[in-house]
Description:
With 65 residues, the chain is mainly α. It contains three helices and no strands. The N and C termini lie far apart (35 Å). The chain crosses the membrane at residues 5-25, 37-57.
Amino acid sequence: MKQLVLALIIIGAINWGLIGFFRYDLISNIFGTNLEIISRIIFGLVGLSGLYAITFFKGQRTTHG
């Protein structure tokens, strides 16, 4: 499960980087306007993966002293 979440986060990060640097939306260009619903599902899964990834930090608290 964590590998899938990380893969989706990486895909999302790469896509955001492409949008930011080149104004190129890879996901939307792959699926085109005919399959816009698939693009929206992928974007939704990337967002949910980001939220789930917050739990990766749970239990990683360290004490300083």
